[in-house]
Amino acid sequence: MLIQPTLEQLYAMRLNGMAEAFRQQLEDPAASELAFEERFALLVQSQWTWKQGRALTRRLALAKLKQPACLEDIDFRHPRGLERARWMSLAHESAWVRRKQNVVLVGPTGVGKSFLACALAQRACRDGFNALYTRAPQLFRDLQAARAEGSLSRLLAKLARIDALVVDDFALAPMSELERRDFLDICDDRYRLRSTVLTSQLPTDRWHGPVGDPTVADSILDRMVHNAHRFELRGESLRKVHGRAELAAAEGERS
User: Model's pTM, two decimal places?
Assistant: First the structure.
């Protein structure tokens, strides 16, 4: 049997997972005891796993998540008003993305809004959806640059295709007329078609101030908030809590 040419052909066809599994079978004496159908099924499964892993890596790279957050690392013990059952029901198999629903996370700085938003987006990537993280100030800068370059329509079309769009730090600063109009366009493009996560330090009933125009603010709230899963977080900053814990641990080691 010409093993090396077979491996080279598998790699040439980009069947890397199958090639590696074939190589492992050749090195494992127990594999020879399996029927042809079983060995072939293992090769196909390895190729499938390899391909899925590559696709996930690509989706995570394109998502540009602020931090490597995942659902398994969420701390539900910290008293911040995050209900485990409700959150996990929402996140299970990215149900909110499948149903084209939005998520709004509001609360003071440090309670983990960005982490939670990134965890939802990361899970969406794991479940086969594409995602994108951006901070509201950066989003508006990108829109402004695209308008100057004549590529605004292309950028808006790209954003409209994102399954799970995370806009962090929304309503932190007053919005200009162009920013209001562009964000409303994003809301219109995504309404009932795609899912969005908004995080803000301000409660939603105070968003009218930063948005500026009452009519536009009502339109944004109507499309992004009124039918969203809302989480109003509270409590002490997790950064302070973790900082005290690290200091206490360091002092314990010195004593």
Answer: 0.85
